[in-house]
Amino acid sequence: MLNRLCSGILAAAAAVFLLLPFDALARQPFDAKTFEEAQAAGKTILIDVYASWCPVCKKQQPTIARLEMEKPGLIVYEVNFDNDKTVLKKFGVQSQSTLIVFKGAKEVGRSTGESDPARIQALIEKGL
Description:
The protein is α/β, with parallel strands linked by helices. The chain has 5 helices and 5 strands, in the order H-E-H-E-H-E-H-E-E-H.
């Protein structure tokens, strides 16, 4: 009985999660101060350079959202490709759908245009 109840609760939670727009997840816009604090603390950080019109970015989002939930130590900062030109310059980014992983202050991986969930996960795991 308890197993069925737990299974039902998990199924309902998964259904609600799948119905949420990915923007409803706890996305943090890039903030230099909190980014530097996370680096100083040795955290695993993903910089997600995103554009709302980008089909590859949209394909990346379910994987990033899943990993945010599965990897509680992962901090994700979203950088708006169209509006955050200063941040793009800081990281040397020239294209949307760019993912940059840091472990503390060190960049440990970067990809552009990758939408394969296994490859995105492998990239992020470089920082864990």
